[in-house]
Amino acid sequence: MTTPDRPRSRASGPTAPAPPSLTRSPFQSDTFTSATFVTVGRGPALALAAVWLFTRVGMLALLASDSLGIGGVGHEVRLLYRHWYGLFADGTFPPGDPTWQYPPGAGLVIMAPGLLMPWLGYTQAFVVLTLLADAAVTLGLALADRSRLTHGAWYWVCALPLLLHLPLARYDVQATALAVLGLLLLKGRSPTAHRLGGALAGIGALVKGWPALALIGTPRGRTTREAWTAAAVTALTLLAVLALFFSDSLGFLRQQGARGIQVESLGGTALALGRAAGLWPGTSEIRYGAYEYVGPYVSTLGHLFLLLTVAAVLWLVLWRLRAVRWTEATPLDAALAAVLLLTVTSRVISPQYLVWLLGLAAVCLTSRRTVMRPVALLLLPAAALSSLAYPVLYAEVVAGAPAGLTVMVLRNALLLAAAVVAAHRLWRATVTPVRE
């Protein structure tokens, strides 16, 4: 007869020592608690629902006008997703399309609006499903918050609108929902919950890739075996089904491997600063559906960031091997740290990547033992600056104008700081020996 996993430690004694004391943040203060009205009862739930409704109506209004900044945020759904939907209806993934750079599971999200198209147009159906995914995230976080004084649901509801209407016009909310709900299930004690959480992470991995990192911090032993096995079986089964019914299901690998340095990435910011200082003569152009830099040293810089990504993965493996203390928050904290590390080392940091990070930060805030509160705070201005970068000041960002360059330097500095802080606090809370 098996028993649920218990926290393990290499330290002597029957129980692991508590994590080292970490600096308190505003999320732990009585002031923040009062300001957000997060207490047990019906009133806060109604307040949360009212704020969700108010903010989402505002996001819908922005999407309906779609004229902020450079405008055209919804074109990706109206034109590109709708075009791909027609190809899927013919039984094929986009053949040779340089803009198709997503794992095959993304096709399921692109096809899903067809379920509502007898009553709605494609764009309207896509937005409805995105809002349903957003509501599912909110409900899951609210249920996780209900028994103690935590702030995950409020963080998600209030932070997502910082990205304006962009989340409604991309499928990142759906991918984030799979990762968030998977992590919330992994907090449970039953094997069924662990398997369901792993299955959601496996589906998420085939939809966007990064949700697989939701499993990086599962406790050693039965929980890891149950979750990782379920994720692998689910992902392989879904991949086989898609390969059986659709042609060219792995064609996205060609496009992903050829990506360069996007203007919004950390590498892009370095090149923009070099161009502003007269040290780099390159320019930007649309490649693979986004603005990328072209010119000398771009390929070298791209290879450098690939090496940095490999280094980040190796650090995560080392952390997993060295960690000796697990709490209920460790899997949540590890997922956020992992996605942050792979985000800042990526050659592409699109503004919708902040949807992932905000969702994972919200999950962390459902546990009072999380060490990621400062990281969650850093992500809020990063999200606001991302919406300034796109769509509000995107023309200035592409041109390397002072306003656009300033926004990108600040946004990417915040993301880099968040990644460093997350890695440091995760290591300190789980690996660094506790002083007696």
TrEMBL record:
<keyword id="KW-0808">Transferase</keyword>
<dbReference type="Pfam" id="PF09594">
    <property type="entry name" value="GT87"/>
</dbReference>
<protein>
    <submittedName>
        <fullName>Membrane protein</fullName>
    </submittedName>
</protein>
<dbReference type="InterPro" id="IPR018584">
    <property type="entry name" value="GT87"/>
</dbReference>
<keyword id="KW-1003">Cell membrane</keyword>
<comment type="similarity">
    <text>Belongs to the glycosyltransferase 87 family.</text>
</comment>
<feature type="transmembrane region" description="Helical">
    <location>
        <begin position="330"/>
        <end position="347"/>
    </location>
</feature>
<keyword id="KW-0472">Membrane</keyword>
<feature type="transmembrane region" description="Helical">
    <location>
        <begin position="119"/>
        <end position="141"/>
    </location>
</feature>
<feature type="transmembrane region" description="Helical">
    <location>
        <begin position="45"/>
        <end position="64"/>
    </location>
</feature>
<feature type="transmembrane region" description="Helical">
    <location>
        <begin position="405"/>
        <end position="427"/>
    </location>
</feature>
<feature type="transmembrane region" description="Helical">
    <location>
        <begin position="228"/>
        <end position="246"/>
    </location>
</feature>
<feature type="transmembrane region" description="Helical">
    <location>
        <begin position="297"/>
        <end position="318"/>
    </location>
</feature>
<feature type="transmembrane region" description="Helical">
    <location>
        <begin position="375"/>
        <end position="393"/>
    </location>
</feature>
<keyword id="KW-0812">Transmembrane</keyword>
<keyword id="KW-1133">Transmembrane helix</keyword>
<feature type="region of interest" description="Disordered">
    <location>
        <begin position="1"/>
        <end position="27"/>
    </location>
</feature>
<feature type="transmembrane region" description="Helical">
    <location>
        <begin position="193"/>
        <end position="216"/>
    </location>
</feature>
